[in-house]
Hints:
Elements: H1 24-30, E1 35-41, H2 46-62, E2 69-73, E3 75-76, E4 82-83, H3 87-90, E5 97-102, E6 105-111, H4 118-127
Parallel strand pairs: 1-2
Antiparallel strand pairs: 1-5, 3-4, 5-6
Keywords: Isomerase
Protein name: Thiol-disulfide isomerase or thioredoxin
GO molecular function: isomerase activity
Amino acid sequence: xxxxxxxxxxxxxxxxxxxxxxxxxxxxxxxxxxxxxxxxxxxxxxxxxxxxxxxxxxxxxxxxxxxxxxxxxxxxxxxxxxxxxxxxxxxxxxxxxxxxxxxxxxxxxxxxxxxxxxxxxxxxxxxx
Length: 128
């Protein structure tokens, strides 16, 4: 198998039922040139299965190039801690976590149970 960064999360497959017309502002914010999305999740994780397909659809609608979306599959240890690529470097404790970077600097972060869906939350963070 290829290195961890080339693996994908099945849960990032875009939800075909996602309503693009309801999220035009969010799509515009996510489409900003130069943004890189780093997504930690697990196909075994209920929160990821519930949230990431819509986020995948939002990135797809925004036309974000595949090379700007990095998937990091995470496993859960017996003690509940998370292991996987770049988990320690980025301080990942809960999934899904999405880190948005611009020019190598973190500009927004969604962690598991924020007050809004991933695309909405990150669009608000990017606009502030």
